[in-house]
What does this fold into?
Amino acid sequence: MQAKIARRGLLFGAAGALAAVAAPAVVRAQGLETGAVRRAALHNLHTGDFFNEVFYANGRYMPDALAEATRVLRDWRNGEQHPIDPRLFDALHDINVRLESNRPFLVISGYRSPHTNAMLNRRSSGVAKKSQHMLGKAIDVRVQGVELRHLRSAALDVSAGGVGYYPVSNFVHVDVGRVRQWSGA
It folds into this structure.
């Protein structure tokens, strides 16, 4: 059992290192300022975990902060982790700036393992078979004290990728896939 856990840790560490190496290309693509400091605040409602750290400073993403955010956004049903695309944190930061808020994003869903996504897809037609959640590129959130429609509007203004509006379920889906929008239950 410990060998399996050690292998997972090694694989996760290698994936995190790969993400850190790839991050400068993401920085150039997005035109982030070298002196910019970006912070994300997350509260995972299922695990109770919090993340409130600077994830970008001095012209680069912070690997330790990204690793901790990945842990907080793990699949809460089975504990599996997957590297989260740094652009997702950029989008959340930009959304908070537009909202003029420093409140944490309340996380309904971050990373979803293929097993979890398949189970959810069988239960609901609203879950995509090839969800961005499985790629570490999506998050479902709300912000306490912020009307859901304002959160949706801010996410649309950022134009980072997909924005799904779920007023009955009380969350907004944000991803860094292709730019699109939709409404659900």
